[in-house]
Amino acid sequence: MSAENQKTVSVAGGTRAQRKALVRELTSVRSKTDEETYYYKSNKYRVYPFENSGADCTVYIYGDEKPEPAVNNKRAVVYILCREADTAALTERLGVPAVKATPSSAKGINDLLEAVHLICKGCPVPLKAFGKARFQAFLIFVFSFLFTASFYLLLCFIILLVC
User: Fold this and answer.
1) CA 147, 152, 153, 157 torsion-angle sign
2) CA 69: distance to chain centroid?
3) How far apart are CA 33 and CA 46, in angstroms?
């Protein structure tokens, strides 16, 4: 595997147990001898359970007992563990994507993997593309498509009338 497909991810914030649990969830590590890596979309990601300044992306954990994380770079994702947190407001305040954990499913993990992947690739991450905002983005797409289609239909009708 080429070096460009190997990325590093560090986990910061939260408690030590929360960081270790997230690393286990991402990498499926069950013993201390296993390598803390995972593969996503043909890329290998090495995960560090501590803040690493040289990492390609940093995941900040935002839990119930902690204050809002101090995000000091734009190559970061905030992983929210508390249910009451407003994802959209937190995303807007911090300027980085915020992903809410879903306790009984992997929905939050899937959104986190996608956000980390986009950040490591250097792509601009749509800040409101996770959670409820995904549905809003879909609605905007549908309405813009319908508006464009109706515009072309109206244009064709006018051309038929003129001819």
Assistant:
1) positive
2) 16
3) 14
Exposed/middle/buried for residue 40 (C-beta within 10 Å: 0-12, 13-18, 19+): middle
| pTM summary value | 0.67
Domains of the chain, by residue range, sit at 3-128, 131-163
In the DSSP assignment, the letter for residue 84 is T
Torsional class of 42: left (φ above 0), alpha (ψ -120 to 50), beta (otherwise): left
Residue 33 pLDDT level (bands cut at 50, 70, 90):
very low
- From the candidate CATH numbers 3.40.50.2300, 3.40.50.300, 3.30.360.10, 3.40.720.10, the one assigned to the domain spanning 3-128: 3.40.50.300
